[in-house]
Write a structure and sequence with these properties.
- This protein is α+β, with helices and mostly antiparallel strands and about 525 residues long.
- About 30% of the residues lie in helices and about 25% in strands.
- A hairpin with a 2-residue loop joins strand 10 and strand 11.
Length: about 525
Amino acid sequence: METLQRIVSTLANKNDEIHNFIDMLNHTIKNVQVSSSNAISELDEEFDGLYSILDEMKGSMASTIQQEEARKIQALKDQLNQCSTALESSEELLELAAQSLDIKDPVEFLKAATQIKDRVTMASAFRISLKPKVSDSMTHLMVDFALERRMLQAVKFLPVPKAPEIDLAACLVADNCITVSWRMPEEDSRIDHFVLEYRKTNFDGLPRVKDEQRWELVDYIKATEYTLSGLKFDTKYMNIRVQACNKAVAGEYSDPVTLETKAFVFSLDSTSSHLNLKVEDTYVEWDPTGGKGQEKIKGKENKSSGQNPLLKSNRRSGAPSPKRTSISTRSLPRAGRDHFTGESYTVLGDTAVESGQHYWEVRAQKDCKSYSVGVTYRNLGKFDQLGKTNSSWCIHVNNWLQTTFSAKHNNKTKTLDIPVPDRIGVYCDFDGGQLAFYNANSKKLLHTFRTKFTQPLLPGFMIWCGGLTVSTGLQVPSAVKMLQKSENGLSGSTSSLNNIAYEHLTGSSRVSAAMNSVVCEGVRLVCLDPGGV
């Protein structure tokens, strides 16, 4: 039966891969058709542009020839007009000289001869050039496109850069950053820059065509390595591809690689949050008008009489002090939770931690009066507050009258004599039984709970007068991992010392003291009690 189920599962996976590949082939065929049509359109545009330039040049050069023709003809016409005028004057003078030869009177003849001589001296016929001012040659405006013709005949498609190769072994995913490294299959000095594209996905293997997010682009990368930073890992994987570009054209994409981007992602569960809380995905805000008209019920347990909890209506106006809380009865686990009520201004995450190591961060508004950050089992009652039951752990900030910072579990409080950070990081190692809180900016350890978790954990938040912003999709920071390794080493030796001390103590009071003894190193708190603070 098991073997058959494995075969069916394998076949189903293979069919899914083939379906995805068929979709990819069909998508590629369409892309080839679109790309071919675009290439032809671009080719037409380039040749049309070339034709346009040639037509423009031809018109300009023809205009130059026509202008030169007009200039020469005008010069020759001007010269022709001068010659015609000189010829008319010369013919008139010639006729006058011929008439003078018939004069018999010597005095008159001499006078006429003198006048003809003076007019000949001033005649334009003897001052004009009988050489054309311009030639009839137009050879200086001839063209020879032999070189250009050879250049045009040598025109080919642009050299396209080859596809880069992503070095998967050199790629690194850490601290919500992805460092991608690649190389070219061969040296290409014409490459100007690279383009990196990435896309979130929940599918391993080849990128899918259907139901995927769009590619995000990072352009003009000069090196062969790039780090994507500040990412939210809200999907299981990330597809990465790279292309090389010269100054004219982009090359083929590299074969895409798929990198795992696993992180803890959750939203705030508005279906069970207190009605005085306004919840939007990863933000919760105190809203004093949100619970208007509801009955604020407080459960009180009478331990001496063993009677049922006394229920009474409380219609106080305004925001009650967070210190005024009541000991509640425990709600049994249920499929659909009731809204938190009374003074349990609580909202839980909608995703449980059941194994592994996880991390998220919380930022409080500056004017926030009181808030808690921690985890709880699903059985937290609707009147219960974080840290006041044996199934919830938290750190609490109280800015009511004066600022106090403390760790809480099982209605026990440990004051933390350290400044309250702007952002609090929550580290949960379910299998290792650790819940640690950090200054999210400096990664300084604030407090550690050590216990054995026996049920799935839900992120929990309490807020009164203010708002909280939760950041999820975060990997466990490298600095936190290093600190946890160091802490685990120290806690191992500390636990051994405490166990020895426990073995040498006698009496119920001393046993109790040993079981609840703590070792403080800086702000680290280690507890032997599996559920203790």
